[in-house]
Amino acid sequence: LQEIFRIIQYKFKKNKIKVMFTDQNSKELQFLSNEQIREAAPTVFTEKPAANVSKHYTHIPTVQVVDDMKKLGWGVVDAQQVKARKNTTKGFQKHLLTFRNPEVVINGADGDTVFPQILLTNSHDGKNAFTFTAGLFRLVCSNGLVIADEKFNDVKMRHMGYTFEDLQVQIKEMVEQLPLTVDSMNKMKAIELDIKQMKALAQKSLTTRFTKDQLKVAKINLDEIINPVRDEDKGNDLWSVFNVIQEKIITGDFSYLSGARSRKAREVKNFKQDMDINKKLFAMANELVPQEIAS
After folding, report:
1. The dihedral sign for the CA sequence 246, 249, 252, 255
2. Which residues, listed in sequence order, are joined to residue 219 by a DSSP beta bridge?
3. For labeling, which of 31, 175, 191, 287 is most exposed (least CB within 10 Å)?
């Protein structure tokens, strides 16, 4: 993996972002232990598939992928699973693992530190392959972003024929796309938005949480959506504004009037909804990057 990271390590101009290694002597990232993963998402350790799967189905416990990812330097920093709607799906339901590698970090000259992440979703009911999605984690606000771009399609691996060697190839290819991730971030940082554009992006972002009919009757102060929570997020560039809006939408850190009643938006806790909203928000922000810059 050291060789891979050297391939993607390159510098940008001053005040932009670069991919780099962390100091080997720096504080090590704390990965979740198997016991902690089991407590949060016991389905990761399911040893047999659901009873109704095809006889041709090959069962690969998700913990096997966890062990293989460790060999590649990626450890689990978060684990979740959806609630089983039926007793027949309990223990086999969809789950999410978030991996991070402490040796890979994206540092901005402005102090914005971002860790690339790999999100793995799986289930043991025969309905899902291993699905790997590229993500980003902003240290300043503990924000988890999901990348939505044609260059970063989800990577799916079937259970049948799964091997460590195939996983190694897939992760290598995802890591090699990191320069494109940095490029996207730098392009967003280079675009300044006026207040009208900020509010337009905020208004559009609300469609990820509310239906058209709900938005017709709800009164939402867009200034609240675009107002930064912390000084580090202040700025009119697209990257800063996007991160402020994303955090507000996901955490539900805004209020709105529904009729005569004031309501507090709820935090998005379902990881499937979280990933879906994150992808849509990233795509919306990307639409504001002029074509001549995006190409």
Report:
1. positive
2. 257
3. 287
Q: What is the CA radius of gyration of the chain?
A: 20
C-alpha distances in Å from residue 176, one per residue of 134, 182, 188, 214, 242: 12, 11, 21, 42, 25
CA 197 – CA 205 distance, rounded (Å): 12
Question: How far is it, in rounded angstroms, from Cα 194 to Cα 212?
Answer: 25
Phi, psi for 273 (deg, rounded to 5): -65, -40
Question: Model confidence over 15-30: pLDDT tens digits?
Answer: 343 444 444 333 457 8
**Residue 54: φ, ψ to 5°:** -65, 150
Write phi, then psi, for 58 (nearest 5 degrees). Answer: -105, 120
Burial category of 219 from C-beta neighbours within 10 Å (exposed 0-12, middle 13-18, buried 19 and up):
exposed
Rounded alpha-carbon distances, angstroms, from residue 50 to 126, 215, 270: 8, 41, 22
pTM above 0.85, yes or no: no
Give the residue among 238, 221, 223, 215 at the shortest CA–CA distance from 286. 238
CA distance readout (Å), 180 to 118, 161, 175, 231: 15, 30, 10, 27
Q: Supply the pLDDT for residue 193.
A: 97
CB 148 within 8 A of CB 278: yes
